[in-house]
Amino acid sequence: MPAGIEVLSLHDIGFEHEIDETGTTLEENSAIKAEAVYQWIVENGHCTLDGVFADDTGLEIDALGGKPGVYTARWAGELAANRKKALSELADKEDRSAQFRTVITLIKASGERIAVSGIVRGRIATEEYGEGGFGYDPVFIPEGYDKTFGELPAAIKNSISHRSRALAELVKVLQR
Fold first, then answer.
1. Whether 72 contacts 81, CB under 8 Å
2. Are the CB atoms for 42 and 30 separated by under 8 Å?
3. What's the predicted TM-score (pTM) here?
4. Residues carrying an active site annotation
5. 127-149, pLDDT tens digit by residue?
6. In order of start, what are the domains of the chain with their CATH numbers?
């Protein structure tokens, strides 16, 4: 974040509740999480904050109609099983194109809501490569690269990722 914008974590503000992600889209889950924190701040008198934001992220595989999408983290249960399921479902597919998409919902102190997103296009590898990152990183090869997110140095991954792109959009909104 640029100078003058301070980000506090949920821990920093004392928010320790689980938030059920009951939405059917990334946009809905992002908004649900931001709304839960916003309402908690209002109810607990933390009005000195200028706003809250929350995100949701999904892997959208073209040949699978956008799956796993909003269910990315819990598609097959745990992370290794999720990757295995993606590789299995694409085993006989030529089109391995996919994208990671992050949606961030900002709720300003005034109650105004703004959603921004970031996308990184790429393809699903035929097997896992690399030890870095988490989730689907060992099977996702971003456009313009021949290595998976799991193989790329963290600095490169972070500079081109869907989250960094969504955060760049959020910063533009905050600087208006």
1. no
2. no
3. 0.92
4. 56
5. 999 987 789 999 999 999 999 99
6. 10-174 (3.90.950.10)
